[in-house]
């Protein structure tokens, strides 16, 4: 194998996956990483159009209220009862995200340990994953 080919393979292996190739878990992880880094463009791109509006407009939204997200732990499992709740999306998954957060203004949640439920689905049968909803309780 030539040195140039070996270097190209190494560089491809080290590249960050494109958003459309992320798994459900990686989509959620990337979202919270982007929120922590205040990379609002990347975080918003991982949301469904309905969630994008809440992300931008909500006074206590992650974009408008979050300073830090640390100690992130994510679990993902099928959400069979939500399969028809999000038209245009398939393979709906539910994620649980626990983390420590610091907020600019404490509106609905205090600083410290948090737990959020998220629904994640694919656009169409095999498209990229998007976060469909984020909530803090049943």
What does this structure look like?
- The chain is of the alpha+beta class.
- It contains five helices and four strands, in the order H-H-H-H-H-E-E-E-E.
- The chain has a four-stranded antiparallel beta sheet with strand order 1-2-3-4.
- Residues 1-18 have low confidence and may be disordered.
N-to-C SSE series? HHHHHEEEE
Shape: globular
Report the β-strand fraction as a percent range: 25-35%
In CATH, what is the class?
Alpha Beta
Tally of distinct domains? 1
Helices and strands, with pairings:
Elements lengths: L2 H12 L9 H13 L3 H6 L3 H9 L4 H4 E13 L10 E15 L8 E12 L5 E7 L3
Antiparallel strand pairs: 1-2, 2-3, 3-4
In short, what is this structure?
The chain is of the alpha+beta class and 138 residues long.
Keywords:
Nuclear Transport Factor 2, Chain: A; 4 strands; 138 residues; alpha+beta; globular; 5 helices
């Amino acid at each position: 194998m030539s040195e140039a080919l070996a270097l190209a393979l190494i560089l491809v292996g080290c590249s960050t996956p494109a958003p459309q190739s992320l798994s459900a878990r990686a989509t959620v992880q990337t979202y919270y990483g982007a929120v922590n880094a205040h990379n609002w463009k990347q975080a918003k791109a991982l949301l469904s159009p309905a969630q994008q509006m809440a992300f931008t407009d909500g006074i206590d939204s992650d974009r408008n209220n979050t300073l830090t997200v640390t100690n992130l732990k994510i679990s993902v499992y099928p959400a069979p009862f939500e399969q028809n709740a999000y038209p245009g999306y398939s393979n709906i998954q539910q994620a649980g995200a626990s983390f420590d957060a610091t907020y600019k203004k404490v509106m609905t949640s205090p600083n410290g340990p948090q737990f959020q439920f998220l629904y994640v689905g694919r656009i169409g049968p095999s498209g990229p994953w998007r976060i469909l909803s984020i909530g803090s309780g049943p």
